[in-house]
Amino acid sequence: RQCLLPMKALKFVIVPTLAIFGLWNLSKIPAYFEFRPMNNVTYDAAKCENPELDHYLGVHQLLNQSIELRPFGCTGMQNQWNLYVMFGIKSPFKLFSDVENFLIPHCAMGVVLEVLLILALLQGSRGLYDRSKFFLPLAAVFAIHILPVAKGAPDSMAGGAPINEVLVAVILVVCLVGAKGMRDDFNNNGQMQPREKHAGATLITAWVVIGILINIAPVGEWVLMISNWGYDPPKTEDHPHPESGSDFYAGLKCPWIGKIACMFLMLSVFMYGFEIYAAARGESWRSPFSRNGPAIWQIFQEPAPGTDRWLFLRPETFLEATGECFVMCMGVSWVITAMFNPGIFQDNILRSIVGYNNLCVGFDSPPARYVAMPMLVLQAVLASRYSYLDTIRLRGTRDQLTFRQFWFAYCSNWVFALHMMCFPMLLVITADFMSWETTKIHLLLFMVTLVIMWMMIAGNVYEAPELELDTKIWFSFFTAHTFLLPVAGVINVLGFGKDVPADQIHLLRYEKPHPPVPWPITAYLDYGWFLLLLLTVMFLPKAPPVKTRFHCSYRDSCDPEDTSEEYSQVSTPTISSMHSVSSFDSDVIGKKVDSDA
User: Fold this and answer.
1) Is there a contact between 259 and 26 (Cβ–Cβ < 8 Å)?
2) What confidence score (pLDDT) does residue 58 get?
3) Beta carbons of 586 and 545 less than 8 angstroms apart
4) Beta carbons of 475 and 440 less than 8 angstroms apart
5) Over the stretch 23-77, which tens digit does the pLDDT of each residue have?
């Protein structure tokens, strides 16, 4: 704790600084995703060095303006790529490493590490202890990821001095030292309560050293940017790095792997940040990073509960498992598509309609579709189990609800369960250039899904006796996204090929997308809706768990209402289940469930 005193004094300076660095790296990721430059292999000198064409600004493409300009990306990848895309600001320092498999995931790892540093500083010694199991392995991967392209900047700027190699070695050694410190702290903390566990001096030192090393890059980048402000070379000298397009990561020939890794890193840190929120509320069970593990893991540990003991079942656990199953489905599908059908990311009708790739693209085509189908069936099972338990809880609290509250929530549960059983039909009725009718049905099913998900959540919100401010804010944002996204989608569908016969829609597949609603707006509503949906369990109103017990006996009658002598002699095993809604405070029950687990 004495080691933390200087950190406490400086955290009001360090935290904003780390936040600025994190936002700086975060701003690069959209530019890397949507605006890919030329490399030395794809460079077109005839067009790029044409004196009749003006310099290209990325914002023109963003606004879908058809202006004849110098082809985009003639400069090649450079430092501060985000500033070039947004404002046309150039840098003399070219990068040769592959965009998809190095720059995108490396930048994402940097953002995640910055966020973990901020969270740890805000929580103090306990935050360092809790985040180390995520921070140290990620820092090691971050360092190893540099090695194949270690000869780039800053080595190339320092005459080939092994700067990157030394930094990688130091980070790996510090990670090992930190792991030893984490093990020692684990042994020293023993059976202490989670809030009493703290990091020791070794682990704190490891965090400080790694934090300094990973932030050398943004500081150096800003120094170079300021010292070369206003750089504008002739077109004949402004071309990609001579080694670009031929580095180790470019040779992997699977560019979407890096983008998928980036998306899951960003999703993980997004959800991990809300783990702090759940802990502050005293309801750590709401977080997928709870000590009991993800919800789907908790369910699979005991898929068939034991008999003759009371169980406290939270319907929200099965709802969270439903979301986790969908996330796993997306991850597996996108990886399979990236490996076996990567061309679909550039040639699909959804991208032509809305201007970007939404989540459906990852599992709409074979072979990913064959893997996604059973996972969506499992999702339907978990969703149905949630509806079943939530309906039991609804009946148990009926005397506290109005007629409208009860029946709205009751119908919402049933509609949600039935719709989730039909949801895998999205993989049967697919979006395809060769069938405009099925494409419209596919999009309609997705829009109906938005409304039904909102109904299920609205049922929980409507029946709650009181709502906290954070729940009101979250539900307001979720409602706005739920109803604005279909509006944007309908406008784009009606504007797509409106003068083209349905049987000739496939002829538009090679045209540049020009959606009526600019793609950044639709993409924000689309991905924003999914992120808000993933926070459902985090912000749902407080509700008690279902107290239940299963009993199995050979002595009980198969039919409790049949008292005939003949029937009572039948020796057939029967199972009965008793449910009730606990009147105890949900926080107390949550602690009991956690301790039992």
Assistant:
1) no
2) 43
3) yes
4) no
5) 999 889 888 887 788 888 888 887 787 766 554 444 444 444 444 456 677 888 9
The structure tokens listed for 522 are 């639709």
Contact between 181 and 203 (Cβ < 8 Å) = yes
- Residue 308, by phi and psi: left (phi above 0), alpha (psi -120 to 50) or beta? left
Q: Count the neighbouring beta carbons within 10 Å of the beta carbon of residue 517.
A: 17
Helix (H) or strand (E) holding 198: none
Tokens representing residue 332 in the block: 């597996």
User: What is the gyration radius of the CA atoms in the chain, in angstroms?
Assistant: 28
Residue 510 pLDDT more than 60? yes
Element containing residue 579 per DSSP (H, E) = strand 574-581
Q: What token pair was written down for 11?
A: 């955290």
The two tokens of residue 591 are 């602690």
Backbone angles phi, psi at 408, to 5 degrees: -65, -45
> Is the alpha carbon torsion for 367, 370, 376, 378 positive or negative?
negative
Query: 271-299: per-residue pLDDT in tens?
Result: 777 777 777 777 777 776 666 778 888 88
> Which residue, chain included where needed, has tokens 């979720």?
478
Distances (CA, A) of 411 to 2, 483, 539: 58, 20, 21
Give just the sign of the alpha carbon dihedral 208, 213, 214, 216: positive
What's residue 563's pLDDT?
A: 47
393: closest CA among 582, 143, 161, 156? 582
